[in-house]
């Protein structure tokens, strides 16, 4: 068991650090930096480690909440993001790139499907993809349902 000294005065054992923080810093300097980063004044008491753990947890929780918020915003802006997430792909917002990635992944997953339930699930995803990746969601503009020359030949 080793001791970590902070500010040249206050000492904390590696056992206490591990029990409160779930890990042991690589050096006394790293522990001191953590106290500084989270604005906690060390006193040598294990209560310092409780405060540090709480501050680190709150900071981490805020980061996770922000990531969730960002992902939700991304999902709202990219119609196919939720579909891609179902097979482990993070949508980039680039239609062609995401469509290709989805098709590659779904093909690999479909080939590895052993039972009928998995095959049905992947077929459902393919069907949903035809709607989500449809021309109406393609950012480069939409094509007409029929070519103009066909339309023109009907009326002229």
Could you explain the architecture of this structure?
- This protein is mainly alpha-helical and 156 residues long.
- The protein has 2 domains: 3-67, no CATH class; 78-137, no CATH class.
- It is built from 7 helices and 2 strands, in the order ββααααααα.
- A two-stranded antiparallel ribbon has the order 1-2.
- A hairpin with a 3-residue loop joins β1 (3-6) and β2.
- The termini are far apart.
The ordered H/E elements are: EEHHHHHHH
Portion of residues within helices: 55-70%
Q: How would you write the strand order of the largest sheet?
A: 1-2
Mean pLDDT over the residues: 81
The number of helical elements comes to 7
Low-pLDDT ranges: none
Number of domain units? 2
Give the overall form. Answer: elongated
Describe how the helices and strands are arranged:
Blueprint: E1 3-6, E2 10-13, H1 14-21, H2 28-37, H3 46-77, H4 81-86, H5 95-112, H6 116-132, H7 148-155
Short characterization:
The protein has about 160 residues and is mostly helical. The protein is built from seven helices and two strands, in the order ββααααααα.
From the structure above, extract its key features.
mainly alpha; 7 helices; single chain; 2 strands; 2 domains; 156 residues; two-stranded antiparallel ribbon; elongated
């Amino acid at each position: 068991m080793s001791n970590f000294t902070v500010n040249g005065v206050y000492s904390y054992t590696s056992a206490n650090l591990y029990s409160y923080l779930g890990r042991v810093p690589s050096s006394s300097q790293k522990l001191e930096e953590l106290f500084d980063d989270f604005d906690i004044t060390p006193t040598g008491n294990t209560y310092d480690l409780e405060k540090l753990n709480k501050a680190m947890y709150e900071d981490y929780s805020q980061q996770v909440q922000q990531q969730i918020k960002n992902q939700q915003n991304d999902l709202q802006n990219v119609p196919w993001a939720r579909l891609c997430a179902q097979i482990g792909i993070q949508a980039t917002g680039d239609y062609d790139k995401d469509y290709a990635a989805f098709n590659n992944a779904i093909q690999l997953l479909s080939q590895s499907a052993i039972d009928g339930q998995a095959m049905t699930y992947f077929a459902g995803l393919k069907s949903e993809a035809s709607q989500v990746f449809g021309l109406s969601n393609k950012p480069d503009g939409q094509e007409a349902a029929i070519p103009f020359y066909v339309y023109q030949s009907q009326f002229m």
